[in-house]
Amino acid sequence: MSTAFNKLSDKRKAFVLKYCRNGFNASQAYKEAYPDSKVGWDGSGSRLLANVSIKQAISDISAENQEIVKHSFEEACKMLQQRIDYLQAQAEKGNIQAIQAQTALIRELNDISGLHKQRFVDETEQQRELTESEELEARRIASIRLRTG
To answer: Given a cut of 90, is residue 12 above it in pLDDT?
Structure first.
């Protein structure tokens, strides 16, 4: 955890963690971190969010979480690409089930990468969807990049 987080009291640490885990609901986080409090949860949670140390701790945790998500996404893509490569070798041997499995994995990879939903801006600055041939070419390029990356 960050330095800002480590400097907080135990109750404030609990508030920050609960706030980050519950979808950034300050009232709920306050209610869970301070269950014996007689003060209103809405105002108290908001007041804690105004604290500079708490803001910094939340910001640090959010940045750490984004890095974890990015790393997890890259690992998932790498793992799927390895499976696709293995199935490609099996498919080249004539294994029909490998071809079907490979197709399913390619769809899954496209779904998590968002490649199949790519759009671009043409000369007139208007968005249009990729044509089928453009989409196939984009998939081919992405497949090459994933294999070399």
So the answer is: yes
Residue boundaries of the structural domains of the chain: 3-65, 70-148
DSSP 61-112: HHHHHHHHHHHHHHHHHHHHHHHHHHHHHHHHTT-HHHHHHHHHHHHHHHHH
Q: CA angle at residue 145 from 142 to 149, to 5 degrees? A: 140
Are 33 and 72 within 8 A, CB to CB? no
d(CA 130, CA 22): 38
Percent of the chain with pLDDT over 70: 80
**Which distant-in-sequence residues (6+ apart) come within 8 Å of 7 by Cβ?**
53
Q: How confident is the model at residue 125 (pLDDT cuts 50, 70, 90)?
A: very low
CATH topology of domain 3-65: Arc Repressor Mutant, subunit A (1.10.10)
**pTM, to two decimals:** 0.48
* HEC-encoded secondary structure of 33-71: HCCCCCCCHHHHHHHHHCCHHHHHHHHHHHHHHHHHHHH
